[in-house]
Amino acid sequence: MSDNKTTNLMRRRVLKAGVASAMAVGAPIIFSRNAWAEDFRNNPANSKNVVLGFNVPQTGAYADEGADELRAFKLAVKHLNGEGDGGMMNTMKPHKLKGNGILGKKVTYVTGDTQTKSDAARSSAKRMIEKEGVIMFSGGSSSGVAIAVQGLAQEMGIVFMAGLTHSNDTTGKDKRRYGFRHFFNAKMSGSALGPVLKKEMGTDRSAYHLTADYTWGWTQEESIKETTEGLGWKTVKAVKTPVGAGDFSQYITPILNSGADTLILNHYGKDMINSLTQAVQFGLRDKQVNGKTFEIIVPLYSRLMAQGAGENLKGILGTTNWNWALKDTGSQAFVKSFGQEYGFPPSQAAHTCYVQTLLYANACEMAGTFYPPEVIKQLEGFKFDGMGNGATEYRAEDHQCFKDVLVVRGNQNPTSQFDLLEIVQQVPRAQVEYDAKIFGGELGPYKV
Amino acid sequence: MDAIFIQLLNGLDKGGAYALIALGLTLTFGTLGVVNFAHGALFMLGAFCAVTMQKLLTISKTVKDTSITFFDAYKEQPYLEIWWGDTGTMIIDYSVPISILFAIPVMLMIGIIMERGLIRYFYRRTHAEQILVTFGLAIVIQEIVRHFYGANPIPTPAPDIVSGSAAIGSAIGLSDSVVYPWWRLIYFAFSMSIIGSVFAFLKYTTFGLVVRAGMADRDMVGLLGINIERRFTIVFGMASIVAGLAGVMYAPILPPDYHMGMDFLVLSFVVVVVGGMGSLEGAVLAGFLLGVLQSFAAMNEIKAILPGIDQIIIYLVAVVVLLTKPRGLMGRKGVFED
Question: Which of A252, A281, A285, A290 to mutate against chain B (most B CBs within 10 Å)?
């Protein structure tokens, strides 16, 4: 009898324990949507914090952009953790961000210096992934760098939210499932710039290109040539220049007698500042060729470059992803927040990095997990607004964001030290959209 | 014709920088027998004299920018402008020419400290050891500059009055399209005057006579009771000034960064080797020759036949010269051949 009692008690205990265990294990599955049991690289499940990696150029030709990117990342982390005024978290829609980190985990970050070099960027990203345990990394300011680290992201199964990268290849032939670009690209710059060039400079021009000799320069030259030749312009010559050349005089002197009446500078950052300054010193803007005033075009523009180039940039046309002078509520909220923090408005590089960080965090919240394939699925095709440039969509086919593009001009009459670019036209998204298939490439698998 | 003339000017302008650096290198090598890999760092330090002067002249007060209303923005207003208005602005505008006066004593002092503090201990050591120690010194100097000034290039503009270009074409009967930046023309004239001054100093002064004698036979000059070591220390200081001034004047052409010395060092060694080790005339001749060749190689007509030639022309010429004239264009027998 007593033996039976003991057996019953034990059975009850076992049953109770079994039910309790099943509930304990099952509860998260029942109550939390999209809960994933899979283990994955740098899963922060057992940590109070989640680590993000910010891999930006702190030295080299794009260091100014890198510094501003880092400021924006830090501000995004602050807002995600519920500090500060919340910035674009107040205007983004739809979103599931709660201001308590990501999925309840406090956001921390590590930084790296890409040195604007692909190999340095890759080893810095690898360190972040292997040693610092980042769940996502971001940054850029060079397409060569972005493409190199995007490949690494795919190999290692860590999401890469690209910063400033403008080459068609990033979301074209070199696109990857684990890489996402919010910034616009050279093809979109060309499409936006075309009608304005036609209106302001006509259809009979001879263009000379100076092009940074790497993926971004090549694709920008190709896209701008496609646009200008489509307008009826002739391309006199396209010359490749090494990144960080410094002294561009030997490339500028041949332009003087080339018969060209337009110089297109496919340069960015300090290269653009140096080449433009030297082109102006060589008197190009004062020249009359073929009965026309010599013009310079800088297809990819930024306020930071405008600051460096000073007077030389006044009146020069180009395109930009975003500008602090935009009047929409999202842009204004970000500018105010950034301005209060640092004492000056953000650059387009800062804007894209801030937005990318928030978008990743929101995708995790929507997925209910950090598991990369699920986060990626949330980002693919995600439509949002309230983050500048109007309604935006992350196209699922190539991970390229589509939104309005700004055609700008170096401001002739600035009203403040930051009022350097005048917005000539906000080109609607429909005008810059293109078929994802034209650039080829494969995204690759979700699970790696 | 116009294109050739512009490329020639551009080549002479580049050659001026090469010649100035190579001249200092050759002076050090010819007098002290030291292969000084830290010479590029002296060029960089010169450029940073211009940066320092600009920073000193623009020490500023932070004031609120009232044109920005929706956040607290600030701007820097230099004290010189606050105190002296337009005169202050003009002084800031002339920071590069002013820094020449600053660079001369600074570079002389740096040169003497370098020579007395380190390099003199390596006079009788092998060239391999000299290269190692001076290369190490160059890296140390570079990292010190990086620590204090950061890694990014610092724009150091020329005075406004010479920031445009000169219409040379119309002045000499060529087409109006032939123009050239004023500051680059000034750089060329400046490099010619420095080179001329160094040669005149060595040729027409007693000090120069002794130095030249020392370069030919150091032991004999010593036996005549002349303290040749002290003179050579001064020569090292002179070489530092020449490199430094080349750097100061180059700052408006290429915004200085901590690495610029290394970029020029390799080119300058090629110039010295092509000119002939120990030959001052050879260094100057090779500097201008290679600058002009590099500039012509960048012409589209040349690159259409030989793509990428502009990137390798200098090294190609060095190979050809060394194969045909192993001592360089004006090298002397016995130099660097022990």
Answer: A281
Reported as a pLDDT band with limits 50, 70 and 90, residue A24 is low
The confidence score (pLDDT) of residue A32 equals 45
A64 interface with B at CB cutoff 8 Å? yes
| Structure tokens, B338 | 């022990």
Q: Is there a domain that residue B120 lies in?
A: yes
Residue B6 banded pLDDT, cuts 50, 70, 90: confident
Percent of chain B predicted with pLDDT > 90: 38
Interface of B with A in 8-47 (CB under 8 A): 10, 13-14
Which tokens in the block code for residue A318? 């180009």
Q: Which domain holds residue A225?
A: 187-320
Please give, rounded to a whole number of angstroms, the shortest distance from the CA of A366 to a CA of chain B.
Answer: 33
CATH number of the domain within which B313 lies:
1.10.3470
Return the CATH number at A223. Answer: 3.40.50.2300
Best residue of B300, B301, B302, B309 to probe chain A, by most A CBs closer than 10 Å: B300
What are the C-alpha distances in Å from A193 to residues A272, A294, A440, B208?
18, 18, 24, 63
Would you say A257 and B299 are in contact if contact means Cβ atoms under 8 Å apart?
no
The helix (run of H) or strand (run of E) holding residue A211 is strand A206-212
Distance CA A76, CA A324 (A): 17
Rounded to a whole number of angstroms, the distance between the first and last alpha carbons of chain A is: 59
CB–CB of A392/A403 below 8 Å?
yes
Quick one: pLDDT band at residue B173, thresholds 50, 70, 90?
confident
The pair of structure tokens assigned to A149 is 């680290």
Residues A52 and A80 in one domain: yes
pLDDT given for residue A19 in this prediction: 55
What is the interface pTM, i.e. ipTM, of the complex? 0.75
Residues A354 and A229 grouped into a single domain? no
Q: Which domain holds residue B153?
A: 2-51+106-324
**Count of structural domains within chain A:** 2
- Residue A9 clears pLDDT 60, i.e. is over it: no
Least Cα distance to B262 among B25, B40, B37, B39 occurs for: B40
pLDDT of residue B3: 78
Quickly tell me which residue has 């320069």 as its tokens: A217
- Nearest CA of chain A to the CA of B184: how many Å? 10
Closest in A59, A250, A417 to B294, CB measured: A250
Residues of A in contact with B10 (CB under 8 A): 249-250, 253
- Taking alpha carbons only, the member of A349, A411, A407 closest to residue A62 is A349
Q: Kindly list the distances between the CA atom of residue B135 and the CA atoms of A97, A226, B110, B119, in Å, as whole numbers in the listed order.
A: 54, 49, 16, 12
Rounded alpha-carbon distances, angstroms, from residue B76 to B84, B108, B249? 16, 33, 26
**How many domains in chain B?**
1
Cα(A404)–Cα(A389) distance, rounded to whole angstroms? 5
pLDDT at A34: 47
Sign, Cα dihedral of B249, B254, B257, B263: negative
Which one, of A165, A103, A156, lies nearest residue A125 by Cα? A156
Q: Residue B168's pLDDT is what?
A: 84
pLDDT, tens digit (0-9, with 9 covering 90-100), for B286-326? 999 999 998 888 888 888 888 888 888 989 999 999 899 88
**Which amino acid, one-letter code, is at A407?**
V
The Cα–Cα gap between A374 and A401 comes to 19
Q: What is the pLDDT of residue A31?
A: 45
Tokens 């804007």 -> residue: A351
- Tell me which amino acid residue B240 is: S
**Of the residues A271, A288, A320, which one is the last residue of a structural domain?**
A320
| Co-location of A224 and A308 in the same domain | yes
Q: Does A416 touch chain B (CB under 8 A)?
A: yes
Report yes or no: B105 at the A interface, CB cutoff 8 Å: no
Q: Is residue A34 part of a domain?
A: no
User: Is the pLDDT at A368 greater than 50, yes or no?
Assistant: yes
Q: Which two tokens stand for residue B177?
A: 């399209």
